[in-house]
Predict the structure.
Amino acid sequence: CSGSTNCDLTQITNSKRASYVQNCFGAFPCLRFTSAALTGYASSATIGTAYQSSSVVAQRTTSSSQDGLLSQSGGSTCSTFFYTSGNVGVYRGTIASVNAVEGSWHAINAFLNSTTVAAIMIDGLDNTGLNSGSSACSGNVIVANNSGHPLNGNIAEFGGFSGNLVSGSRTVLNNNQHT
């Protein structure tokens, strides 16, 4: 974000905010999200239309169909999310998913481009050549909600940006998240 574009994520309704938990991820704090509160944080900023990359350390504590991690336009065009039980997915018109042990903490580094190619590195295993569709990414950034599917779980670290998160960068981020 630059200039007058606000990159702060906000949730103005107190009852919909995540709770801050000390010592959630080892000795580190996290934000705890519950679908009962319909949590989700939005920003007036956008990530971009050609690429969407995300880096997240998160845990889903209760399985549902599509618990949001990062999305744009409420999840209708581009998103990274916990998918069905035991999976993490990305979406840009088509869902591509990889295995993720349910209830465990995961380092997730995902990349979507505009030509259907996606990659998801999860806990050091790089899954490339995934087909996530080619819809244009647009709209505001939303964290912990995917088109009405809020996250039931915890987020210890989060980043989203426009750009190609190449394999070497995914590896460096993932290694850092495990130290």
The chain has a mean pLDDT of 80. The CA atoms of residues 12 and 54 lie 24 Å apart. The longest helix spans residues 167-177.
